[in-house]
Amino acid sequence: MTRSTRCSVCLHPRAAEADALLASGKAVRAVARVIGVDRNAMNRHHQNHFSAPASAEGRRVAADPTASTAEIMRGVVNDLRSVDTSSMTAHAKSVHLDNLRRATESLSRVEAPPPPPDDGRPTWEEIRRMNALMFEALEPFVGARQALARVLRAKVAGAREG
User: Fold this and answer.
1) pLDDT tier at 37 (50, 70, 90 boundaries)?
2) Nearest-CA neighbor of 22 among 81, 82, 69, 90?
3) What whole-number distance in Å separates Cα of residue 66 and Cα of residue 132?
4) Which band of pLDDT confidence, cut at 50, 70 and 90, is reported for residue 38?
5) Can you list the positions of beta strands (E) in 47-144?
């Protein structure tokens, strides 16, 4: 895929997604509608700037009608990563890296975000519940309750500063 500085599809923020949809065999008209560009512009892009996935894996995924957009885009990203850039000019490398960046960004928008890591630390909700339980348990001990409140306020203030 070569990118043009004048092609409205190449300049579109969802260009890599458009290429992934085209690689999957979707109709040019349908891709234009999904991406939100003029069908004539998409047709020109398809004829002049789009190239099907180069690797056998990329072609297999693109031809699979059950493949998700994320799988197709993953194939596009992998194809772009596998390109040998050693013989490219500086400008061609720059264009290639821009294509790779855009495809990777599009892929990250399509894929579901990973679940938060379970590092064993309590969540803020758990901390709030524990604090409420501690203050409730210290109800009869006013001095201890006030001391705990001072310590917690100092810790929070220190965390905000540092």
Assistant:
1) very high
2) 69
3) 51
4) very high
5) none
